[in-house]
Design a protein that fits this description.
Biased composition (Low complexity): 64-79
Shape: elongated
Number of helices: 2
Strand order of the largest sheet: 1-10-3-8-5-6
CATH topology of the largest domain: Jelly Rolls
Number of domains: 2
Region (Disordered): 58-88
Distance between the termini: 102 Å
Order of helices and strands: HHEEEEEEEEEEE
Oligomer: single chain
């Protein structure tokens, strides 16, 4: 009789171990389903596809519009240039004494130079990188994304600085 109990106990332990192991395996498989390579959520791609996608992104993603360039970049005017498509990025040089005015919804990134905010009212410009508002005359940190919610606000070269600003612009703008 002792042998029968040993066999039954061994069968219960082995059966319980198999059941517990299969439950743990299901949990492990379910936890990583979204990160499995080769699925629709995480497809495996070839190097040539990635290179082609990068080239399209560099060329503007296949858009047919191109930014408008200034007619005479040496002579400042009130409407020297304007951006075209909201997806196109233009590189704009702002000389001391000029103001780069954004259209509503435009985004600027100051790449070089010392810039300050220009605004006709007390409201400022959203610095999306720092998550704060910069008011009129406030300094702009380089490589920060600025969002202009309304027309009439912009940036200019900091007073006393003799170097140009280099600004990446997405959206409409004009130079005054």
């Amino acid at each position: 009789m002792k042998t029968a109990w040993k066999v039954i106990a061994a069968a219960v332990v082995v059966g319980g171990g198999i059941l517990a192991g299969s439950l743990m395996n299901l949990t492990a498989e379910g936890a990583g389903v979204t990160n499995q390579p080769g699925t629709a959520d995480d497809p495996v791609v070839t190097k040539s596809y990635v290179d082609q996608a990068i080239q399209q992104a560099i060329k503007g993603g296949g858009t047919t519009t191109t930014p408008t360039t200034p007619t005479n970049p040496t002579t400042p005017s009130t409407n020297e240039g304007s951006g075209s498509s909201s997806d196109a990025v233009s590189i704009v040089d702002v000389k001391p004494g000029q103001i780069l005015i954004a259209s509503a919804g435009a985004e600027f990134v100051v790449r070089s130079g010392k810039a300050v905010i220009y605004s006709q009212d007390s409201n400022g410009v959203a610095d999306l990188t720092d998550g704060k508002d910069i008011t009129n005359g406030g300094a702009v940190a380089n490589n920060h994304l600025l969002s202009f919610p309304r027309d009439g606000r912009g940036i200019q070269v900091q007073e006393g600085n003799k170097y140009n600003l280099t600004v990446m612009v997405r959206g409409g703008y004009k130079i005054q």
